[in-house]
Fold these 2 entries.
Entry 1:
Amino acid sequence: MTKRNIYLEDIPLDEARAKLAAALAQAGKAGALPGERLPLTEALGRVTAEPVRAARSSPHFHCAAMDGYAVEAARTASARETQALPLRLGVDAFPVNTGDPLPENTNAVIMIEHVNQADETTLLIYASVAPWQHVRLMGEDMVATETVLQLNHQLRPVDLGALAGCGHDSVLVRRRPRVHIIPTGSELLPHDVEPARGQLTEYNSLILSGQAREAGGEAQVSDIIGDDEALLRQALAGALADEPDLILALSGSSAGAHDFTAAAIGALGEVLAHGIAVRPGHPVIIGMAAGIPIIGVPGYPVSAALTGELLVLPLIRRWLGLAEPQPATLEAFSTRKISSPIGDDDFVRVALAEIDGRIRATPLQRGAGVITSLVRADGLAHIPRFHEGVDRGGVLKVAPYQPLSAILETVMVMGSHDPMLDLLATHLRLRSAAGRLVSVNVGSIGGLIALRRGEAHVAGCHLFEPDSGTYNLRHLRTYLRDEPALLLTFAHREQGLMLPEGNPLGITSIADLRRARYVNRQRGAGTRVLFDYLLAQHDISPDDIAGYEREEFTHLAVAAAVADGIGDCGMGLRAAAEAMSLDFIGLTWERFDLAIPRRHLENAGVKALLEALRDEDFKRELGAQSGYRSDETGNVVV
Amino acid sequence: MTKRNIYLEDIPLDEARAKLAAALAQAGKAGALPGERLPLTEALGRVTAEPVRAARSSPHFHCAAMDGYAVEAARTASARETQALPLRLGVDAFPVNTGDPLPENTNAVIMIEHVNQADETTLLIYASVAPWQHVRLMGEDMVATETVLQLNHQLRPVDLGALAGCGHDSVLVRRRPRVHIIPTGSELLPHDVEPARGQLTEYNSLILSGQAREAGGEAQVSDIIGDDEALLRQALAGALADEPDLILALSGSSAGAHDFTAAAIGALGEVLAHGIAVRPGHPVIIGMAAGIPIIGVPGYPVSAALTGELLVLPLIRRWLGLAEPQPATLEAFSTRKISSPIGDDDFVRVALAEIDGRIRATPLQRGAGVITSLVRADGLAHIPRFHEGVDRGGVLKVAPYQPLSAILETVMVMGSHDPMLDLLATHLRLRSAAGRLVSVNVGSIGGLIALRRGEAHVAGCHLFEPDSGTYNLRHLRTYLRDEPALLLTFAHREQGLMLPEGNPLGITSIADLRRARYVNRQRGAGTRVLFDYLLAQHDISPDDIAGYEREEFTHLAVAAAVADGIGDCGMGLRAAAEAMSLDFIGLTWERFDLAIPRRHLENAGVKALLEALRDEDFKRELGAQSGYRSDETGNVVV
């Protein structure tokens, strides 16, 4: 058996960071970067590289704070409401607008509203004024030499205003950290090239360069290097000659690629760590060459993105002189049991919604290759090293990706996933910018169980009930028991057989499935219930169906399996068949309902969802989809 | 008396917003802007203008999830740990790397670690494998046609990765809202021109354009227009011809300027509101011309910045299809009584720190002309219309500008403000990026009172005690009573007489002050205590000192008053005199101490402050300042 890298053990994240920090300190690269001088108009969002002192006081002269007349206060002492005091214009009183400098020998302003003009040269006033009334004193805002901004301060719009106000037209800001990104992988193509079978699109460089730019750095992405140590060494040497602050060598998907990276770094400098006890993402490499840190980023996209968050972002912030971001975490109750490897810091992507006054976290798919698990995540739960995970209902510490206000407005839909729920989500969003529908696919029965457990607001289900010839009613009562609930029709959908283009086996009915490899849905799925019913109607035993035991979890997954020749036939929606350019034989129109416990009907998000569901625009658009009918959409079943 | 605009009443903020929204709806401008197609490499941070569906499944073929050998699972059934099964390379088993497509007629991958190579053409395996083991199925991440991103979604790095992964190289994003900014004011100069007396630097355009850009818009700033209605009308007409989404007419400081703006908007379209019941900032104008909204922004910088936050930002976000930001607010206890005009929404800038387990909010200067009140603010407290304010200790709702983690690490220093506290803040920041010292100037005695009330961690004081010839000790006991506290020396500072350059009155001692206009400090200030002591020593009555009753609140303010000829002499620090190019006659070296109740010594920020105070670099830098000695800095007095 291969013994590749058995000598290199994963080290804890903290230890890896400490090693990197020590190496940076040794290379004199641990501190903030030096400054560059920028005009104020280009400095927004940049970070000051020195404390900034006022070059000029603001205002830089005593000036009127009101429109009116400047006077010497002492000369007004005798004015009374009952005894107007005359002032000679241009002698005792001088017209000033707000912001005008006080004329010599004046020290107060009388508001224009408090003056009567007796004639062309005489004003009358009816009250004395105190010295410095309605005067902005020189330096009221900023006095020359005082510190206006501290160093390592990220410049906001008001800061730019203050700098201009105290006499600066430029500011010394931290140079942006420069990150050089080298993607590797013989199977990878740039994202603007259509990949053939066996080729994959390289997109981790988009993720890592985006992260670097968001954090305040500059990113340069070089061409993709094939899996060849010599080529990679050459690319690294070229990058080092450019003297960036950081080099990221992005691995392809092949496990062997890590070895190339480690070997190439080792040839040019030193490998400090190879493997970090973080999940997902442990095949991270940390090295230094020519005083420049090099991070080998794993190929799986979730691992790559987390490596960016955990290692690259803190470096960039440190170089900018900024504190490491401490995302405010929230406590959420897990809707699933989560097992974590005890030796790893485990980062779990979760969907978040508030249900019955508690924030619930539902873990999303955990595969490191599933980038959509990060795209769909509302937050990242951290299960620290030496913890085994949490039970269902246990408390997770989650760093949210969404503001709390968005989480509180989220409608959590679990159960069977209909692709048109995304259309409903779009209409929800069109109604309110804050409208958010999160859909988690757990099958029809799974959705009803989730409702009972208080893990979702809404369940999507299409459970055929042969005894009554209807849908969902008996199941709703079975799972929700006495809980009052609303059952609303979402849509009628055409279910049928999905077949390869041209239907090579000539299948025309359920009976023909005896001679085909079938792609099945999972237990608890409405389509599985329907299929089992149809088998029974045709007196066919599941044992006679090749592939019956192999389960897929969505219509599209079944369609994909048929399209790729894994099976000869599957059952599912016309829409899914058409999406994959498959042939389709319609068998039945089924009803897909939404079940909602009545206690959720006052929830703002659920209310908005019900409005969107009954919106005529939505219904028209839904009904226009192939394989969908919307004539009963929004109708109350019970 | 002038009756200017008495017919126009301030309207509530909500009403103003509603009027603007209605006018926008009428002009067909209420919704999100149309899309423009951008390459993914330029789309970071932009907002999707349509839901994005997968153009290609990801992966788009079944592929190996591990490095190893692809096999047909059924052929491995007989393999046992005790009975190796031979597989022929290239016939039964095919080498694959992670990401490789599965060869025809294979449906599982055996990890390379679980195989022994018997000879060049034969592998041995020791266990059967299940179908699809270590295989990433086509569409595992995204299936062609499924919705990957909703519309009105702000693109993050991982989203760009997902879009590339499912076959996109570009994305339709909302066009950036275009904001045209016209600064007006005859007294204003661009910020890169040195203003003369009577001229002011125009910087509100920097603030408003920065706010527009931060929110996702584009901003264009035109040249400054003088206070002339015809010129402004011409500039507005020019801007309208350009068809921006929004025009901002920035008023200068003169009150009359609002009238020009209103008249010019009225001439070209309609004024919807003139005056909004918001404090600070009410002279806001809202209008529409040629279907384009125009906002007249008040000239005082705090009013201008708040107008941007309250009116401009929500518009830009609406045009981008984003929800209005709902900043998470926190509850803080006010350290001051705040009176609010009952008819206004009042926005109060506050400094925030956690003291004794509670977050305390200290209101900063409230003048609308003091931009540093926004620069220094840690948050904005909103006192809604129909509320009269809060008492000291009352609860404020604050939208924080700082993350909670920064607020929790803040050291609040009240009392006398020494300019070198800013140097200490810099060193605190150099030690830790999160280190933050907030200093609020309330005078020496005010600081000790703040300590007793739990409103500050540290008080700065320099209270001379003639009976003992020492500093601060008796006052500390007077105000803190039995509370155990540490008194540490911050610095010795040279106090003396600040005189105009050349000392025109020939002042050489305190006795000479009888023939000068003096600029005094406020009661409770250490310098005032010292001055009163010196007067008594010279047998001079305060009545003999012209200007004794006029109080300034800082050394620099006294220096500025002398520099500007308001007075002939003041007492203060050598450093302040030199900052203003004044002559200086040294009278004494005084001790400036920091008082810290012992219960705060375990506070992380206070600990860091004590370390910074005793840092040799800090002490060296402090001692090198003119008028400072640091030989006792950090020493414990009691």
Note: The first helix of chain B runs from residue 13 to 26.
Entry 2:
Amino acid sequence: MERVYNFSAGPGVLPLAVLEQARDEMVVYKDSGMSVMEMSHRSKPYMAIIAQAESLLRELLAIPDNYAVLLLQGGASLQFSMLPMNLLTHPTQQSVDYILTGSWAEKAYGEAKKQCGDVRVAASSKAVNYSRIPTQAELTLNPQAAYLHITSNNTIFGTEYYYTPDSGGVPLVADISSNVLSRPMEISDYALLYAGAQKNLGPSGVTVVIVRKDLLGRRTDLPNMLDYKVHADNDSMFNTPPTYAIYILGLVLQWTKNQGGVAAMEQRNIRKAAKLYAAIDRSSYYQCPTEAISRSRMNVPFTLADPSQDATFLAEAKKAGLVTLAGHRSVGGMRASLYNAMPEEGVDALVTFMAEFERRHG
Amino acid sequence: MERVYNFSAGPGVLPLAVLEQARDEMVVYKDSGMSVMEMSHRSKPYMAIIAQAESLLRELLAIPDNYAVLLLQGGASLQFSMLPMNLLTHPTQQSVDYILTGSWAEKAYGEAKKQCGDVRVAASSKAVNYSRIPTQAELTLNPQAAYLHITSNNTIFGTEYYYTPDSGGVPLVADISSNVLSRPMEISDYALLYAGAQKNLGPSGVTVVIVRKDLLGRRTDLPNMLDYKVHADNDSMFNTPPTYAIYILGLVLQWTKNQGGVAAMEQRNIRKAAKLYAAIDRSSYYQCPTEAISRSRMNVPFTLADPSQDATFLAEAKKAGLVTLAGHRSVGGMRASLYNAMPEEGVDALVTFMAEFERRHG
């Protein structure tokens, strides 16, 4: 079986070189005599693997020394709760701000409401079906907020922030699950960032949290597993970490570095996204629901002029080796995710297929 | 590099056949055109993988239909908190019972105290350095307790329950992380069982929870990610599950079934443990700190008559291809873990090495 071009929104495509290395090292890793999966997390070879993963992450994202890097479990979904649990000292008296830009932002907001008595909506683009990111001018910020939360890229609606909100001194927090490593970011603009790995970082099952160290330890009554400080104090080894997922994360980070790092990734992602949006925009058969200024480079939703042809489109695309193109079940249509590991050839193949499909069915 | 015999307490040895299949399927899984790691968790091939894992677990452990099987993240350590969060409806007014048999039981107890105002010790063998499991006669049970918690096998101190405590109708809860699948269990004796995967089930990063369905939904204010009912209602797909770890879990379960299931595993584990304990007991050079009646088949701690030879023992064992034999950092000495995937030949090799070491250094 040949490999296909996999446009999944996540878990998504991984670099072929990473999978080949993982295959070659599966039964015996280097001179350890065992698989990475079988290693005690406190063994020397494994300690080197996890240290290397953190080191590469710090290098690629230029993470300052006053930030802790945590490798946790539970995905962004658990961070939706851990964030307010850890950052609020008086949950019933404090207020937090959320900018709503799609389903995941809404979920983060919903979980915050379970932890905090006053969760404000600082802005929302729901009225325009989340087709763009609110502008700085549209934000209604509470200068007393304990933090301002944003979702830097929205996988379902296909929008992305191209500016960093000025929070007026309020700690800025971002869910960067779906565009981390896709372009340079100024980490020091943020108090905390978090990302599930299963888009640009690696497999599902490991979650990266980057948190300014002065924010740790505000609460002392949390379950150990939900306390950032406990994980920071134990170098993400408080309990057995998801060892194999972290190993793959390290391989993906090394691959990213070999490609030229996040600056090179950004240039490639700009080219890939530009090709696909251009193909959509030059046709009356395809439409993109998002406004140009906020269009995500990672997730490109589009619709056919005749939705009754959706199933045919997906079936013929699959025959052409282009898979996982169905839009999220909540919005329908199509969605092509163009994460770092999606080669330009994959986008070219999709664009060619779309033109041919339109010629035959349009 | 040859494979070694890996006596790690976890993450630990996996069946070679599982690793070879994982290797062969790493780049392309069957006719999917992609790695399992790259699959959308809602894709057809992945849905088949997770359904098969649950089905095999139900078959191997004979789990009744009135129990939900959840595949979660966070290890047993997160269950220490999720358990009281989910089972207590009035945490400040209810009482729970814990039997203390070692470090992990103590940790479970410690986390429960953060969630419940009245956490009782129903029994403890701490006074004898956790060298045995308390007997039924030694239990001081509270008939009003919301549940009674036990740790079915103790990896650090090397003890294991060979009876099921009669809780007098109080829901019985067990951390079965380190002996699940090692022998048949009567699931209906328990209200809830949980296990981190990284001993007999698979890689770290996935946690199995088996819970009687009538216990779900007692609380409605929990974070979604910490609510058993949310995960049960969504077939462990509320959020992106640790997809690759679950795939490996499925392979390990299939291997376990191919070996004859848990009854066959028990026979093999009895033979393996008997060989090693006999080797220790017939020598005055080796000592086992645990009492015979509670000796674990999974984790066998032992000491040398002369502790100054510990480092030599470990170094020479490593040269003989026998690794990860150091005792837990909290107790020292040696520990050989004999999980399901440790072949009898590994135990034979260890026993032979121990006799030779004693001859040369004893």
Note: The mean pLDDT of chain B is 97.
